[in-house]
Design goal:
By secondary structure, the protein is α+β, with helices and mostly antiparallel strands. The protein has two domains: 3-65, no CATH class; 75-115, no CATH class. It contains five helices and three strands, in the order ααβββααα. A three-stranded antiparallel sheet has the order 1-2-3, with no helix packed on it. It is elongated and about 55 Å long. The model has no long low-confidence stretch (mean pLDDT 89).
């Protein structure tokens, strides 16, 4: 989250919400947390709103409020950018079926696998 931009704006709907969720407090306590865009809101004629995963879901965020990360070029980058929820869902199948198909690999094989391109690309 782009905390300086959000801080300079109107915190209504971020700090004080109808649901009681204090997004502002959470993002300040977890400034390095990474979220995935899970949806888009086209109801505003001026700008598209983004729905995010994890603790920031339930609110719309605009592009200036986000710090966008480039697409992962390696499995290492892909894993590093995962949210806790994404890791819990994906990491075991990714490692078991992608890395350990032929048994337990050594450090060099793990390094080579992590340096490879993410599956499906």
């Amino acid at each position: 989250m782009n905390i300086p931009v959000i801080e300079d704006g109107d915190l209504d709907g971020v700090e004080i919400t109808a649901s009681g969720t204090n997004y502002w407090r959470y993002m300040c306590q977890h400034p390095d947390e990474i979220y995935t865009v899970t949806g888009f809101d086209y109801s505003n004629d001026d700008e598209v709103g983004y729905t995010l995963s994890g603790a920031m879901e339930g609110n719309n965020w605009y592009s200036n409020e986000l710090v966008l990360l480039p697409t992962a070029k390696t499995r290492f980058e892909q894993i590093r950018a995962m949210t806790l929820e994404e890791m819990a869902e994906s990491i075991v199948p990714m490692v078991v079926y992608g890395l350990c198909e032929d048994g337990v690999p050594g450090p060099e094989a793990i390094k080579e696998w992590l340096s490879g391109r993410p599956n499906g690309e």
